[in-house]
Specification:
Strand content: under 5%
Radius of gyration: 15 Å
Distance between the termini: 41 Å
CATH topology: Hypothetical protein af1432
Number of domains: 1
CATH architecture: Orthogonal Bundle
Oligomer: single chain
Structural class: mainly alpha
Largest sheet: none
Number of helices: 9
Number of strands: 0
Helix content: over 70%
CATH class: Mainly Alpha
């Protein structure tokens, strides 16, 4: 399966950094779940899942080149890295182009127009809010400013507040 080969390639890419590998797997699973619950087409779902696997591929090159892995540097360094890896693994050109674009915009929170972009943002935030130990105020602010899908909102409310927590 193509996605398993990609997962293994990203394990190798992030070898020696289990936190980064764990982060990727969590984002991948949340993206997969939200995409399925939101009814993405098979093609959209494949692109979303592929992007979730490689979304942070620019961290290591950004750290090596600039000594920083800010969101913008991750986007900048991630696009060519994603394109190179996906091409080497035989992904179709249209998939490679869209996934590379998503990698290059996964820290861009304005002017989000496509569902795959929105869901990738939500999946990454679900993981980052937990991993960063964010307080309830930060989580609720993020919920109101970032989350747009029904599935993403529901998961966020349940995970950080409880099943009946009304944040609307």
């Amino acid at each position: 399966m193509k996605q398993n080969r990609l997962l293994q390639a990203m394990f190798a890419h992030d070898g020696g950094d289990p936190k980064r590998i764990q982060h990727m797997l969590k984002v991948y699973q949340f993206a997969r779940l939200i995409g399925e619950e939101e009814g993405l087409s098979a093609g959209e779902q494949f692109i979303l899942e592929t992007a979730a696997i490689v979304h942070d591929i620019g961290i290591r090159p950004a750290e090596e080149r600039y000594g920083s892995c800010s969101g913008k540097l991750q986007e900048q360094e991630g696009m060519p890295e994603a394109e190179k890896l996906l091409t080497a693994l035989g992904y179709d050109r249209d998939v490679t182009e869209r996934v590379s674009w998503l990698v290059g915009h996964h820290h861009t929170y304005t002017d989000v127009k496509e569902r795959d972009h929105q869901i990738l943002l939500e999946a990454d935030f679900l993981v980052n809010l937990f991993e960063d130990g964010c307080d309830r105020e930060t989580i609720q602010h993020t919920y109101h400013s970032i989350f747009r899908t029904g599935a993403g909102k529901r998961i966020c409310r349940i995970m950080f507040g409880g099943p009946d927590d009304a944040w609307e």
